[in-house]
Amino acid sequence: MIPYLRISLLILPTLLFGADGSIIQRWNFEGNSPFKNLRIEGEPPVVIPDPLNPKNRVMHAVLRPDAKLNGRSEVRFDRIEVGEERWVGCRIFRPSREQYRRVCLFQIGPIVGAPGRGGRGLYQIISVDSAGVLEWTFRGFMSRVTGTDFSYEAGPVTIGVWDEWVMHVKVRSDAEGRITVWRNGEQIADHPGQNAFKGDRVAVKWGPYIGSNSVTNEEIHVYYDDVVIGDENARYEDVSPGRKSPRPSP
Q1: CATH number given to 22-239
Q2: Mapping DSSP to helix (H, G, I), strand (E, B) and coil, where does residue 118 land?
Q3: 72 and 63 Cβ atoms separated by less than 8 Å
Q4: Is this model's pTM higher than 0.70 or not?
Q5: Taking phi first (over 0 means left), then psi (-120 to 50 degrees means alpha), and beta for anything else, what does residue 131 get?
Q6: HSE (CB half, 13 Å, CA atoms) of 106?
Q7: Do the beta carbons of residue 174 and residue 194 sit within 8 Å?
Q8: Helix H segments across the chain?
Q9: E-only strand ranges, the chain
């Protein structure tokens, strides 16, 4: 084979799909465009040093009682169509325990509905105040398509510690839909079933959200890092913030 042709064939996949063809987008909040391709909703987040590693930069979102848009401080990426499959990874850090009754911290959703179908939330990582104890919960809003919502308990929120999350979603208008979720390498949810209608579009969002008409009485701070979205060819290890394999299921 002609040498330059061999080189061209070797670099062609990189030119077409990037150095890692299975990764659609990665945000580590470094450099001059930390929020590239993201749409800001509510109070704008900022980039600050990682509280555990000052050389690292992270996204800082905060809800304030006196803020003009105090129900949310989110960023949004719209890219999932019905029939597509995505791997999503991120790290979430709660620096203090200030809490509204329920705070959504990361979403695969909401759905922008097909004509005549309407839209609503889909899948959410939330923190819940349970008798003074913060708990992680993963919930899904399936009533729009199947009539039954669900939630999975995911353990206590540890203040001052990064939690690593990985989600694998198949957006389908039939029974082949599925969401599987891991927290710190441990599977905490695996829920099959239809999750969309033909023509729906699904966003990926992160940042604290308590509802458009809700107001917090105290500041709620949340940090994010290593947010990754991969396509159907990605693996757990490609989007896992620690690049680790999941723990075997019991």
Answers
A1: 2.60.120.200
A2: coil
A3: yes
A4: yes
A5: left
A6: 24
A7: yes
A8: 3-17, 236-239
A9: 23-27, 39-42, 46-50, 53-63, 73-81, 85-93, 102-112, 123-130, 133-140, 150-156, 162-170, 178-183, 186-192, 201-209, 220-230
Among 40, 71, 23, which Cα is nearest to 210's?
A: 71
Which pLDDT value is given to residue 21?
Answer: 64
Q: What is the dihedral of CA 176, 181, 186, 191, to 10 degrees?
A: -40
Classify 17 as helix, strand or coil. Answer: helix
Structure-block tokens of residue 216: 């917090």
Q: Which residues of 1-23 are buried (b: 16+ CB within 10 A; e: fewer)?
A: eeeeeeeeeeeeeeeeeeeeeeb
Q: What is the rounded end-to-end Cα distance, in angstroms, of the chain?
A: 51
pLDDT at 248: 59
Residue owning tokens 């957006």: 171
Half-sphere exposure (Cβ direction) of 212: Cα atoms closer than 13 Å: 2
Instruction: List the chain residues with pLDDT less than 50.
Output: 1-19, 250
Show the CA angle centred on residue 202, arms to residues 105 and 237, nearest 5°.
65
Residue 109, strand partner residues: none
Q: Two tokens at 13? A: 């996949």
CA gap 223, 203 in Å, rounded: 20
- Domain extents for the chain? 22-239
Q: Which of 113, 50, 31, 44 is nearest to 76 (CA)?
A: 44
